[in-house]
Every structure is written in C-alpha cells, then in structure tokens.
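Journal club prep — side note

Before the paper discussion, L.F. wants everyone to see what a predicted structure for a comparable chain looks like in token form. Sequence:
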Amino acid sequence: MSNLEFFKKQAKNFLKDWQTQTKTVESDGFVSYHYDWKFYDVGDLFFYYEFDDKDEEDIKLARAQHLIAKMVGFKKWDDLIHASETELELAELLLRRFKTAQDVQDWEETLAFTGVAQYGADAVLDYARQYYELGDRKEIVHLPSDKITILQGKLRSEALNQFDDKHNPAGSLRKDSTVFCTHCRKAFDFKQSKVIKANENNLTMVVCKNYPNCHGTYLDYKVLSPTVMYGHAKIAGLERGIQAFKTDFTMDTKVHCIHCGREYLYKEATVVLFPDDDEPLVYCKHYPECDGSLIDMMGAEKVGGRE
C-alpha cells in the first residue's frame, strides 16, 4: 500500500469512529458527545485541537482528512499528500502509533524538548525510529520469566556502559546517576539496574533493580542527581539559554566565565539537568569544577579577548 492510500484509509477510519457518536443533552442544555471508537479517540482529538461543537456534530471526510494531517504536523491535507518522501514515511510511522491526543502530545513535547526538528526531516525520521523502537522494546518486561534472561557480568556491564557514551539513548542518564523509578517509587544508583534479554529476539532492556517485582524500565526513571546533557539534548539546552537570556551569543561566540576566568566557545559550555527542574541549564565548560552559569558569561571581546 502506498503512503497516500494509507493516509486515505486512516481518514476513513477516523470517519468510521466519528460515526459511532452518541449525543447526550443534559438538563441544563449542555451537549456532550461519546464515541465507541476503535482506531482514533475522536472526542479526545476534537478537544485537543479545540474544534467547536459544530465541527464535531457535522464531520465529513474532508474534515477527517484535515485532522489526520494535523496529527502528523501538517496544516492541511493538501500539505500532507504533497510532502516529501521522508516526510510521508515519518507521517506513516507516527499514525501507526497515534490513537489518542496524549499520543500526539507526547510526540510534540518530545520534539520540542530535543530540538531535533531543526536538523531537518531526515533527522526527525531517524529519531522517531529510535524513539518508538525503545517504546516497543519496553514491552519485554511483561514477558513470562521463561522467555527472559537476566544478563550478568560483561554483557550487563556493556549494556550499562552505553549510558556513559555521549550518544546514550536517554540523553540525560549517566551510569553514575541517582534515579527514582516511578513504577515502584524506589530510589537507587543507576548502575544497580538490571539488564534483561528477550530469548526469542535478543532484544535487551535496562530495567529497575527490583525487576521482576517491578516492571519499570530506564525510560520510567526520574534522574535525582545533576546530569550532564549530550547530543541533541545539549544543543537544545544551549539554544534555550540564548533565548531565555536574550543574549547575542551564537554557538561560535567566544565567552568569558567571570567565575573561573577562562574562555571557550559557547557551544563548549556544559548543559546540566538538575533534579525537579523541567529544563536543563547552561553552565561553564569546566562544570563542576566551576559553578559559573550562563548569567556569569560575557562575550570575550568585552573583557579584552584574553586566552
């Protein structure tokens, strides 16, 4: 099936779900709609996109197509069907996973947090493949014990060591992080996590140290210790810092830290995520030795351009 045929089918599925609508009029005249949906949570998505009662009451296929396009980031259906091959592949990948407004919102927030969209459609598609593969992999914690092997020794160490690589999949986790598992509500050192392997397909997953009593994975962890960010997460943090402080810095601006007196390019600064903070903060390149933050940085030319 071509991408276009797939999208047309999804619009028709959306319309089928809308046709399960039942209308309730309360004693005060308030009207509510309910759906026995199979493919898409129609009512939830109408609310998310702030469509009014008239839109919800009288939907046609064209409106369903419009909503399908909006779910995958396009302004209208015509933009979707004339998108590039990469954009169409990404849209299909997303629609195969979107059912509710929460699914859409989670992806939109992930895009905003990582800043990966600035690198183009190819980068977003690559990130989406990894993002959803991890979500699929997470399900191995629910397999029966006879289909799981708990890794030990070198294999376990290799799996945990990836989180000390600058390209670790979580972006913020490090092997020396202290974490809180939101499933069992226990805190522990990340390096105490277990690593499991699915016997049938050899997929591995880092899971809570209390597995199998807890089915939490590292994707459910909340980092409790300051964590240095890398990759796309770092770049996004640096750019947010420029916007928040309205500086004239660019990534290649040479900055001077008034705390330690050293100079470096802004893109070399450290981005740190602290416990309970929603967003990471920009700190001196030499953090944690120096605790200077973005507010302590000046353009090097303003202090004489010292090396």
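L.F.'s comment for the group: The mean pLDDT is 86. Keep this in mind when we get to the figures.
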